[in-house]
Amino acid sequence: MTAWPIPRVEDGPRDDAERLFGAIRGMAAAASFELAAREADGLGEALARLPRGSAVSVTWLPGDSDADRIAAARAIRAAGHDPVPHIAARGIADRAAFDRLAGALAEAAEVRRLFVIAGDTRRIAGEFGSALELIARCDPARHGIRAIGVGGYPEGHPAIAPEVLEAAVDTKLAVIADKGLAPFVVTQFAFHAAPILAWLEAFRARGNDAPVRIGLAGPANLRTLRRYARICGIGASIQALSSRGASIARLLAEAGPDPVIRDLAGSIACEEHGDTALHFFSFGGLDRTARWVTAAAEGRIRLRPCEAGFETLD
């Protein structure tokens, strides 16, 4: 990787800037990514930009077929990365259907990790009404699956009470561990560090030591981010996009995750927050996100004054 000098900033001592700069680089270098199944076709250049062996999730969309999901996982594996397909419990008819899909993913793309969600639909295709039901009733290990991930919600869920969400994630992690599988969590994306840190501290305080991938939106225009925020029920932190000292012109052209990454890099302590890393939803396109994250991982960044994030340097 290209070596770049430590940037000078006006808002703190140089040693603090060096520590922050190193933390940002480290977080970006360890990131995972997410794309839609049909995006994988023709994304060779974007996948090639990612560090070899990156975890790349394949989101579950109702319009995608199992063939689309398998093809996407195969493309990710062929590019030298680790595919992590999503499985929507409400979209799976029964255990036999799960076995067919999990077996095909393992055979075609050596899938070893799955991310299980309920699925954003009220229609239940068959046997499973929730992620917990699928996790409890199926046997992913028979297909070589070694780890199962579940969702975390730093800003809550528009239809589920916070205490119910907390109990659900704790139970799912316990069931996964009881099956001899490694649990992990990927959080819903947020645009502000405060709810992420509060959720993470409460999660660890309940005795959970599973790895956590902190969901962030990759760089995209403000209209795109607002649309996804409404769909996903992200409320308060969308306000942070226009309150961190960035110009209106910049926000209209592109809103990046740099302010929240800078805040997280300055706040997360490994001994307190455990195994954490970043996970990027590529709403602006995987290539755009890959270029941005690669620049940060290689240290091609300049810290903005007044704690207003950082910019990447071409």
UniProtKB/TrEMBL annotation:
Keywords: FAD, Flavoprotein, Oxidoreductase. Its cofactor is FAD. GO terms for molecular function: methylenetetrahydrofolate reductase [NAD(P)H] activity. SUPFAM superfamilies: FAD-linked oxidoreductase. Pfam families: MTHFR. The keyword Transcription regulation does not apply. Transmembrane segments: none annotated. Pathway: One-carbon metabolism; tetrahydrofolate interconversion; Amino-acid biosynthesis; L-methionine biosynthesis via de novo pathway. It comes from the Bacteria. Belongs to the methylenetetrahydrofolate reductase family. This is Methylenetetrahydrofolate reductase. The lineage of its organism: Bacteria, Pseudomonadati, Pseudomonadota, Alphaproteobacteria, Sphingomonadales.
